Amino acid sequence: MRHTTWKHAALGCLVVMGLAGCTTSPLGRSQLSLFSADKLDQMGQQSFETYQKKLPEVQGRTRQYVECVADAITEQVNSKDAPKKWNLAVFKSDQANAFALPGGYIGVYSGLLNVAENQDQLAAVLGHEVSHVLAHHANERVSTQSITQSGLSVVQAVAGQGGEQLATLLGAGAQYGVLLPFSRKQESEADLLGLDLMAKAGFNPQASIALWNNMKASGGQQPPEWMSTHPGNDHRIQDLQGRMASAQALYQQAKKAGRTPNCNRFRP
């Protein structure tokens, strides 16, 4: 009887933790957010400074080009809890990658410019990364990891003999049955939010399709989609195409409002 009581108490504790940190994403999806904005901003700053210490930065026309696109994107951010200032670094690296962190930190690897062939394709990447910040995906990811680890600890505490084996099995389930599909939802959400954001900034959203085709061509062999934290390229292209009509309408509105970025003039 006491063993069962402890199980119920432990599971109840986890449920309360989850409900206490329940929020909603910009697309209406329920999220788990257990950490304060200040804490996430601090984590973002620390991570950004770590990158700056480890990787050399690129200046000159390359930085001007990336900064031009980034500024156009972030100027369209009107969320009340979004960063008031965005900090940019272009890192010298062959990797085709970029990131945005809580607190308003954007990092772009110079190798990305070999795949993102023009300002519109680069805007698709930066719109996607900035959207991760606007949708509070970092808080969601850290919170999910925290509560999952707490759950595994509870299992080990209440299960007694065999608890370690059970926790191991649950850990595998968390990896392939809970956390990774959840992370794919984040990526898909950032794709759609980023598409709207780049269109509002005056970049042609159709370029996002060309970008992911380039990514597909340069990415080599991919793991099966169910084992990846990112949607497959074919899947994300299909989702982008499904939202393209509304994004094109936003793009036309931006052009009528005079938002026509000319960042290619800086491209080295």
From TrEMBL:
Keywords: Hydrolase, Metal-binding, Metalloprotease, Protease, Zinc. GO terms for molecular function: metal ion binding; metalloendopeptidase activity. Its cofactor is Zn(2+). Belongs to the peptidase M48 family. GO terms for cellular component: membrane. The keyword Metal-binding applies. The lineage of its organism: Bacteria, Pseudomonadati, Pseudomonadota, Gammaproteobacteria, Oceanospirillales. PANTHER family: M48 FAMILY METALLOPEPTIDASE (PTHR22726:SF24), METALLOENDOPEPTIDASE OMA1 (PTHR22726). This is M48 family metallopeptidase. PROSITE patterns: PROKAR_LIPOPROTEIN. It comes from Larsenimonas rhizosphaerae. GO terms for biological process: proteolysis involved in protein catabolic process. Residues 63-243 form the Peptidase M48 domain. Binds 1 zinc ion per subunit. InterPro entries: Mito/Outer_Membr_Metalloprot (IPR051156), Peptidase_M48 (IPR001915).
